[in-house]
Amino acid sequence: MNFIVSVDKNWGIGWKNRLLVSIPADMKFFREMTTGKVVIFGRKTLATFPNGLPLKNRTNIVLSTHPDFCVRDARTVHSVPALLKILKDYDPKDVFCIGGESVYRQLLPFCDTVHATCIDYAFEADAHFPNLDQDPDWYIAADSEEQTCFDLEFTWRMYRRKGKERR
């Protein structure tokens, strides 16, 4: 399973249920990586999408503990074991967890690759991603040249879990 996330210097990912910043090149990267794939996200993340609707041209799966929650054009599961059962039908390389904080933390043990947009700025954040630079189980497998947008410098990094390298 892949994760895709945008983090600031302190591994912040959000503030008051919103992204910290919207970088057009990062949004393009996200679309390119996830279009035609499976995306997994939580109920709060769904609420941040345009009109609160699932993403087009993707298989959308919402992980929500609310037993009555369901949404049109998306599959809803209410536990990690139920999600993992569904994911057996898909190639793990085509599965992307896209947030938010709670879903990332629940699914991190099942992830082997993280595609992170690393922004060289510290925003005010109330949601965070685990700091992979400080986790000995992860290493940087690829790192892009530094990019700049709106006076923000960022890089794209691919982290891999040690011992889980893909063939």
Describe this structure in words.
The protein is an alpha/beta fold and 167 residues long. The chain has a single domain (2-161), classed as Dihydrofolate Reductase, subunit A. 19% of the residues lie in helices and 34% in strands. It is built from four helices and twelve strands. The strands form two sheets. Strands 1, 4, 5, 6, 7, 8, 10, 11 and 12 form a nine-stranded mixed beta sheet that branches. Strand 4 (38-42), helix 2 (43-48) and strand 5 (59-63) form a beta-alpha-beta unit. The protein is globular, with a radius of gyration of 15 Å. The mean pLDDT is 95.
C-alpha Rg (nearest Å) = 15 Å
Which class of secondary structure composition applies to the elements? Answer: alpha/beta
Oligomerization state of this entry? single chain
Count of alpha and pi helical runs? 4
In short:
The chain is α/β, with parallel strands linked by helices.
Write the layout of secondary structure elements.
Elements: E1 2-7, E2 12-15, E3 18-19, H1 24-34, E4 38-42, H2 43-48, E5 59-63, E6 75-77, H3 80-87, E7 95-97, H4 101-107, E8 113-119, E9 127-128, E10 138-143, E11 147-149, E12 152-161
Parallel strand pairs: 1-7, 1-8, 4-5, 4-7, 5-6
Antiparallel strand pairs: 2-3, 2-9, 8-12, 10-12, 11-12
Question: What descriptive keywords fit this protein?
Answer:
Dihydrofolate Reductase, subunit A; 34% strand; single chain; 3-stranded antiparallel beta sheet; globular; 9-stranded mixed beta sheet; alpha/beta; 167 residues; 4 helices
